[in-house]
Amino acid sequence: MGDTTGPAGLRLPEGVLAMAVRDGDWARWVESLPGSAQGLLEEWQLGLDGPAQHGYCSLVLPVRTPAGRPAMLKVGYPDDESEHEHLALRHWAGHGTVQLLRADPRRRALLLERLHPEQLTEIDDIEACEVVAGLYRRLHVPAPPQLRRLSDRLGRWVDRLSALPRRAPLPHRLVEQALSIAGDLRSDAATDGVLVHGDLHYDNVLAADREPWLVIDPKPLSGDPHFEPAPMLWNRWDEVVAGGDVRGAVRRRFHTLVDGAELDEDRARDWVVLREVLNAAAELDEPTPDPDRITTGITIAKAVQD
Q1: Do 128 and 67 lie in a common domain?
Q2: What is the pLDDT at residue 11?
Q3: Which UniProt keywords are listed (predicted)?
């Protein structure tokens, strides 16, 4: 790979450089980052205000605006999930979420309100679930028409599960159940129409000045609010296992989210089962599948319905 510094010496964090090994498209994106980030800093008249940071698929730079306001410049990898992030943030207008100050969707560039580094990972998981349940109620508003529809993704997921061989290391009963759920949801009008975050979990909620907690990093869809809880169950999994009562811990999180957000329990349960079986199936596509990840998905799918 070529030079990893920009014209003014912007140096990429090691975590961003490591993204280049994912495939050729990622490598080209990483190589282009110093120049594109430096261009944005100059065009938007932003001053660097701290060391570069990163997410799983983005470079994040602490900056100051021309007026001296602290902000964060996020430059994301151009995948489908990030394409409409700016639309969702504009639609929410800072109500429960980080404020969007400026965007260049073509370059996947977002100038965002600066929040604090503290995440929901730093408080008790059930208290965190209560916070997220309250955020659900604010985020789940009518979706902008440009967003991708959750029902369209269901079609791909049905194809993926249908292609699983019967000998796959997943309980066949669960796979059949997930296929049935997906078929029903695919034809249900309520599967689309509500703006959903798509990946709302403990790491994607940060402390703030305007409010105690604000949401970041949406992967927005026109979807169903009941789609949301699953990531809150599979994240912070080490804590679930360490507690000794895995079933009870999963169910406490699930019911805290469902009750706090006034979701329909049966519909939320169906989405959790489907998403967890899909997670386990996706792991089988990895060059070296992680059996623990497969077991986690199966365990959660069973726990919410036992």
Answers
A1: no
A2: 87
A3: Transferase
What stretches in the chain show pLDDT beneath 50? 1-8
Catalytic residue among 49, 104, 199, 203: 199
| Beta bridge mates, 206 | 119, 214
Do the domain assignments include residue 2?
Answer: no
55, two tokens: 């997410």
φ and ψ at 218, to 5 degrees?
Answer: -70, 150
Diameter of the chain by CA atoms? 62
The whole-angstrom separation of Cα 44 and Cα 39 is 8
Active site residue 199: yes
Alpha carbon of 25 to those of 19, 29, 75, 275, 279: distances in Å? 10, 6, 15, 27, 24
Residue 9: its pLDDT value, please? 58
- DSSP readout, 87-102? HHHHHHTTSSBPPEEE
SS (H, E, C) 51-67: CCEECCCEEEEEEECCC
CA dist., res. 300 & res. 276, Å (int): 7
pLDDT, position 126? 98
Query: Is the residue at 1 inside a domain?
Result: no
